[in-house]
Amino acid sequence: MLAAVQKNATRGDPRSVVKAIDQFCRQKEWAMNVGDEKGCILDSVVTEVNPATVLELGTYCGYSTVRIASLLPSNAKLITLEFNPDYAAIACQVIAWAGLEDKVQLVEGASGDWIPKMKEKFGIETFDLVFLDHWKDRYLPDTKLMEECGLLRKGSILLADNVICPGTPDYLEYIRNSPRYKSQYFKSHLEYTKVEDGLEKSVFLG
Ligand SMILES: Nc1ncnc2c1ncn2CCCCCNC(=O)c1cc(-c2ccc(F)cc2)cc(O)c1O
Ligand SMILES: [Mg+2]
User: Fold this and answer.
1) How far apart are the CA of 135 and the centre of ligand 2, in A?
2) Would you call 22 a catalytic residue per the annotation?
3) Active site residue 191
4) What does the UniProt keyword field contain (predicted)?
5) With a 6 A CB cut-off, is 111 part of the ligand 1 pocket?
6) Would you call 4 helix, strand, or coil by DSSP?
7) What is the three-class DSSP state of 128?
8) Is 32 in the pocket of ligand 1 (CB under 6 A)?
9) Average model confidence (pLDDT) for the chain?
10) At what angle do helices 14-27 and 85-97 cross, to 10 degrees?
11) Sheet hosting strand 181-189, strand order edge to edge
12) DSSP per residue, 133-161
């Protein structure tokens, strides 16, 4: 995938990096990027929220990191957490190829360990937008952890990938029934396939 980016994408051009990855995943080898269809929904939410602070849980190869960072205002900050060091190493190069390293802080480690340290380590008060795309059984515990750590403010947006496939039933149950959130489901398809999947967008009400 990285070779395809370096071969087919233009340095400093995030859209060409996104296109090269999508082409590779459609033609050569499926990969678990959010993909072009759900990626358009992600883009519209990022544009609507226009966030100054973004947390991404699950960087993988940096595809959604590049999509998000390319839409951020100049002073905005995106912190992205990746557990797998091999994925992190690739993502770092993909983000650099897109020329977005100044907007992105890639952190290696487990979300459960890093979320409680966000304020002290990165001087973050609250996140305007959180993109959940990591272990599906970590969406709920990490959301509760972000609440407890005071990382969400009235109006913070959570956008969760894969709520249908592979699925995050406990997270959906919680977020759709909690009086502290207003949720909306965006029906789509699993990246590069015809299988149903979707994004759940939730506003924290405080
Ligand atoms: N900072 C952190 N803390 C904790 N865990 C962390 C982490 N950083 C990373 N991880 C570990 C996440 C590993 C990847 C998570 N994503 C997925 O597992 C995922 C799977 C599919 C999929 C669907 C149908 C299939 F047939 C097969 C696979 C699709 C997707 O869009 C997915 O996002
Ligand atoms: Mg995903």
Assistant:
1) 9
2) no
3) yes
4) Catecholamine metabolism, Methyltransferase, Neurotransmitter degradation, S-adenosyl-L-methionine, Transferase
5) yes
6) helix
7) strand
8) yes
9) 98
10) 130
11) 104-108, 77-82, 53-57, 127-132, 152-160, 196-204, 181-189
12) -S-GGGHHHHHHHHHHTT-EEEEEEEEES
Residue 141: asked if its preceding bond is cis (omega within 30°), the reply is no
110 CA: nearest ligand 1 atom: 3
Joined together, the tokens standing for residue 149 give 């750590």
ipTM of the complex: 0.97
181-201: average pLDDT: 98
Instruction: Identify the three-state secondary structure at position 10.
Output: coil
Q: What is the pLDDT of residue 189?
A: 98
Distance 134 CA to ligand 1 centre (A): 5
Q: What is the pLDDT of residues 40-57, one digit of tens each?
A: 999 999 999 999 999 999
Residue in 56, 142, 191, 200 annotated catalytic = 191
pTM for the model: 0.98
pLDDT in tens, 106-157: 999 999 999 999 999 999 999 999 999 999 999 999 999 999 999 999 999 9
| 161 annotated active-site | yes
